[in-house]
TrEMBL record:
Keywords: Endonuclease, Hydrolase, Nuclease. Residues 19-178 form the Putative restriction endonuclease domain. One of its GO terms (molecular function) is endonuclease activity. CDD domains: DUF820-like. SUPFAM superfamilies: Restriction endonuclease-like. The keyword rRNA processing does not apply. This is Uma2 family endonuclease.
Length: 185
C-alpha cells in the first residue's frame, strides 16, 4: 500500500494569520522558510550570552547608523520569514513598527550556532543568498570560529572567510562593525 503525503505550503500572510488566531504564539520557536514552518532549537545560556555580548558591541559600533534587531523576523519573500539571531538594519524613523524588514533593509545577519549549525548553513544560508542579503555571519560556537559569507549569487555565497579565535572580523557592508572573536567566547 502506498501512502501519499501531502504538504501544505504557507505564505507569510497565512503565517501571520496563525499568530493572530493564537495557533502560533510568541512562545513558539518557529520560523517560515519557503512555505514550511520549522521548529527552532531551544536557546541555551551560551547562545544567550553571545547574543547579549554582540548586542552591546554592535550597539556601540553602529550607533545611529543602523538598528540592531535581536531575534526578530525578516520578510525575505512571500513564503519566507526567518528570525535571525541578530540583524543590523538600515535606520528607519519608525524602527520597523509599521512593516517588517526586507532584504533591502539588511546590512548584516548574524546566526549563533551552538546547536543549529547544520540548520543555519543548509536551510537558512541559501535562502539569505537567494534574497541577496549581502553578508551573513555564522558563529560556530563549538569550534569558536566566525564564518563570514559575502557575495551572494542565486542560492549560495561565493565568498567564505573563516575567522579563528583571537582574530578580528570586519563587516564588509558596515565597516564600523569590527569585532575580536575573543570578545565573543
Amino acid at each position: 500500500m502506498t501512502i501519499t503525503v501531502t504538504r501544505h505550503h504557507f505564505t507569510v500572510d497565512d503565517y501571520t494569520l496563525m499568530r493572530q488566531a493564537g495557533i502560533l504564539t510568541e512562545d513558539d520557536r518557529v520560523e517560515l522558510l519557503d512555505g514550511e514552518i520549522y521548529v527552532m532549537s531551544p536557546i541555551g545560556p551560551l547562545h544567550v550570552g553571545i547574543v547579549n555580548k554582540l548586542n552591546r558591541l554592535l550597539t556601540g559600533a553602529v550607533g545611529k547608523n543602523g538598528i540592531i534587531s535581536i531575534q526578530n523576523p525578516i520578510r525575505l519573500s512571500d513564503s519566507s520569514e526567518p528570525q535571525p539571531d541578530i540583524a543590523i538594519l538600515s535606520p528607519r524613523d519608525d524602527f520597523y513598527s509599521s512593516a517588517l524588514a526586507t532584504p533591502d533593509d539588511v546590512f548584516l545577519i548574524i546566526e549563533i550556532a551552538d546547536s543549529s549549525l547544520e540548520y543555519d548553513r543548509n536551510e537558512k544560508l541559501p535562502r539569505y543568498a537567494r534574497a541577496a542579503i549581502s553578508e551573513v555571519w555564522i558563529i560556530d560556537v563549538q569550534k569558536r570560529v566566525v564564518e563570514q559569507y559575502t557575495q551572494p549569487l542565486q542560492d549560495e555565497y561565493t565568498q567564505l572567510h573563516k575567522v579563528l579565535l583571537g582574530n578580528s572580523i570586519t563587516a564588509t557592508t558596515l565597516p564600523v562593525v569590527q569585532i575580536n572573536t575573543l570578545d565573543l567566547f
